[in-house]
Records
---
Amino acid sequence: MTTDASAKPAPRASSLPVKPRIYSGIQPTGRPHLGNDLGAIRNYVAMQDKYEAIYCIVDYHALTHVHDPELLRRQTLEMAAALIALGLDPKRCTVFVQSDRPEVTELCWLFNTVTPVGWLQRTPTYKEKRANQPDDVNHGLLTYPVLQAADIALPKASLVPVGKDQAAHLELSREIVRAFNARYGETFPEPQAVYTEAPVVLGTDGVKKMSKSIGNTIEVLAEPDVIRRQIMSMVTDTERIKRSDPGRPQVCNVCQMHRHFGPDYEAIWDGERTATTGCVDTKKLLAERIIAHYAPAREKYTELMADLPKLRAILDEGAERIRPIAEATMTEVRERMGLR
Ligand code: AQP
């Protein structure tokens, strides 16, 4: 892409937020799994006091692969309830549904005009999705990262808590924002990813990233028996055949997960290394710890889902809260781009 420097408007002060704003989006595609929580939601919760935090349930994104209207509506509410149950406090942060602020689709279109199509075709997730859903290679899959850039730019967020799987998308967001700023003047901050200490959580197969579409998840708000079953199916150290074989805790996903659930990670590591504990013992312990850890969230989730009008009101309020932010950005962008 080339930018015509002579056509660039004179630089002027941009209306950047005073307190750093953070934004992150999550798809309403089922109950959150351990990867979502350890890789992203924990940071959403930790960052809600220090920053002006905005969290979005990205139903427009989900439309690239969810085509059942009732399912989408239900899962949107479920994800809202899950986020609040896991620690988001709508008094301390904003939680809203993407389609409640359709300004983002306009910004996405405007960003499309500064985004070379080659950037999108090269995105690894586009290639993956094309392979995963060959009968439904819709245009939304290609434009997905542009909508994501618009999501982040609409509130002029500078920090984005995400898992490492989003690194390429976030880099693209930065490039899109940079391309916009280069053509139309400094308008948006270049967003930075913020990772947790578990930026990539492996799935129950111990090989691939935990992911709903792969089906290797541990659903944190599921019934205890479901969690037990999912954890007991985890692949451990594949070279440890007999219980008496010394294990390799550094490659054992179960051992690695203990790091996040309990104070005795070193002891568990040692037990596995010296074969004093077996894989089944370690899995059972992990299952009970995860069940106990998420028990209050599970209870809160059930409570929230039992009062849907209240949940909808929280989401309505979130969308209203960011209305002035979205409108101000769009006014500025339209003016910069020469629209009426
Ligand atoms: N395994 C993971 N490790 C670390 N972080 C992860 N995230 C997702 N999986 C992991 C982070 O969770 C946030 C929400 O991502 P999303 O909306 O893409 O969530 P998802 O649809 O639940 O992710 P999946 O399961 O991976 O979906 P599919 O299979 O549909 O692609 C993001 O910040 C993400 O990085």
---
Amino acid sequence: MQIDPANIWDKEALPSQGSNDMNANPKASAPDKIKVIGGNPLHGTIPISGAKNCALKLMCASLLTEGDMHFENSPNSLRDMKSQTELLEYLGCKITARGSSMTINAGGVNELTAPYDIVRKMRGSILVLGPLLARFGEARVSLPGGCAIGTRPVDMHIKALEEMGAEIVLDEGYINARAPQGGLQGAKILFPKVSVGATENLLMAATLAKGTTILANAAREPEIIDLGECLIKMGAKIEGLGTDTIRIEGVSSLNGANHSVVPDRIETGTYMVAAAMTGGSVRLQNARLEHLSAAVGHLAQTGVELDQDGQDIIISRETGLRLQGIDIMTEPHPGFPTDLQAQFMAMLAMCEGAGMVTETIFENRFMHVPELNRMGANITVHGHSAIVRGVSKLKGAEVMATDLRASVALVLAGLVAEGETTINRIYHLERGYEDIVGKLGGCGANIRKA
Ligand code: UD1
């Protein structure tokens, strides 16, 4: 049966907001709560990890070669990295991870099906599709899961691969893809909408295709540039990274390479907001200010001071200064990132005056609003926009983490709330924040797992 890929996701296929067991905690006895007592200003240094949203794709790029891929600054302790490791090992890759190093060898890949049980845990796993198809000529990948932040189709990935000559049939929840005889063909692909994942999948697929591929209306995120730079080290021919038109000249094979993962700009932005909200002064080590220009511009408008010292960012707020409300609209990079929207909303909740937050990337990304309101925030949602009227004090409460970035917004609110905040279901946080309790606790926050 042919299924319309634009309508693959229906609400039943997604976990409901109240029962998101997609990433259910496998260790029932492990701590599943974070308790924060608000009021401490942050002072100290926070090391920034490698970007999850890049490392997951670099792991997929390893499927394009028989050679060894060696990664440094890899956020290996994240739950999403463990899910991706499980998937690649299932396909036949040999992986060793130590500290923040990871080595992957895909010379022994003997399985071309990415099964539902692994893929459902994380949307980033759809990124094995392009590399498998390009190197082996076929792939069978379950339709992905991920955060419950709206219907997230993969129609653009599929249509673009079809434009490269692939034959794709959707059946029983799987994408069954086969390259034409002789391999994928270069093509001129115009994405109807900017998509990070579709750009990355096609970028990887095109490295081993016959002839030239042009990706127009491509995404420009720093993670895509980093992925492209790693592919170039592997022998790929790519021009135009960081612009909306990427040109790839296919080559017959790629080699292994060494690569250091770009710092996580979303983790950086999250801790910037933490420092802004609590006051004090925090040095963010090994961050890249230039990857956060939209967020930094908005932070400066609220009254926060930012300095750059080599690869570090120092963020401070004068004691006693009340931050000012601002308006925010999420956009594809270099606009304001949707992955920082919830954190900025937590900050606006305690600013002076009102601010409006408009979400243009995902349609269901305000799930943190009712939880923030439980903590005394005054936020009203109207369609894709939320009006945040600043209050002088947030109050500790028991709240529920619903997705990765929503969860961290609740931790931020807890850092300034009066009394104790208990955040349930912290496995969401463990998908994307390495040692958040240690990093914030090391700067004086009263935070612990329970
Ligand atoms: C990636 C990031 C995610 C971030 C998002 C936007 C990873 C693992 N995740 O997600 O954290 O929030 O970029 O910056 O890197 N869309 C379609 N059809 C498609 C593909 C996407 O309609 O085939 C839509 C999506 O539903 C969404 C928009 O395009 O509305 C952007 O999504 P996309 O950029 O693809 O996000 P992801 O790559 O899934």
---
Amino acid sequence: MKIAVLPGDGIGPEIVAQAVKVLEALRTDGAKIEMETAPIGGAGYDAAGDPLPEATLALARDADAVLLGAVGGPQYDALDRPLRPERGLLRIRKELNLFANLRPALLYPELAGASSLKPEVVSGLDLMIVRELTGDVYFGQPRGIEIRNGERVGFNTMLYSESEVRRVAHVAFGIAMKRGKKLCSVEKANVLECSELWKEVMIEVSKDYPEVALTHMYVDNAAMQLIRAPKQFDTIVTGNIFGDILSDAASMLSGSIGMLPSASLDEHNKGMYEPIHGSAPDIAGKNLANPLATILSVAMMYRYTFADIATADRIENAVKQVIAQGLRTGDIWTEGTRRVSCSEMGDAVVKSL
Ligand code: NAD
């Protein structure tokens, strides 16, 4: 199994180093893994003048899976838009055709106190958001800023083809089948034609999955329900921009974005695995970051790309154990628990493993 390792910027190299420790421990146990590292984001710009250097893309294409840290940093904010780190991320997702983004939000019982909601509202939360990742208003044409009637106007195009909706629907129904068999499709069909088509296609695809109970919800209501009663949801499927916002809100239910992994899959379950958070420039280089989201991303890699459920469970159990032992990085630390650094947390997971 070939893994392209793309640490990126900010805390990216620190957290990816911990995930690599976990992979190396699995290799010592006999897992056949090859890893190769390449720059992306600001690091790609620094190395090759491009946030997604040709060589990095070639490595990612050739690999079975990609492990990514995070990209971005204030020193790159003044660059022309196509050269900015985030463009490297959007491009690699598009180039690898990673159209299905899986973002679990799971609450470890010991961290219920770290959530901004009351423990009884969130304890036992186990939610999966499937976000379409390569279409919608982020990619639709035309887009731009131009002068109309003597003033500047900015415009983007919300656009989905039925095949784009259908393929992400199949992924979402497949995941719902393996979970609680409940799928909620989130859109804004009362106002947007694009959402009207989304809803129609979801209903068509649901005929292939008679065991899954499909419901529909407008995105504004979904935002409210996620905060009011998040445990009503099992699996949510939604478009790119709605999913971007809702999955960040859902991440807060579980305490810290430092705990949450993600997977972005293509049609053949090849995937890119990354924590949902960014490059955290405020704590970069200080060995303070929480590496668990990145380590849990490796567990997702085993679950979805390598179809090795036993190893995925083993990694997740090792993380559960270090949490149960009371080890905490600063973002999830509470009175009475033991504050550890990024590398100490990585070492503890390897030991548990
Ligand atoms: P961020 O996720 O980097 O940070 C938000 C807050 O959460 C910060 O206070 C940070 O210290 C904290 N945080 C994030 N990850 C953490 C971790 N693992 N452990 C402990 N604390 C953690 O979001 P931001 O500040 O809005 O963005 C910073 C940079 O990251 C920007 O350049 C942005 O464009 C980029 N970004 C990249 C990605 C990505 O690579 N996928 C996603 C979001 C933002």
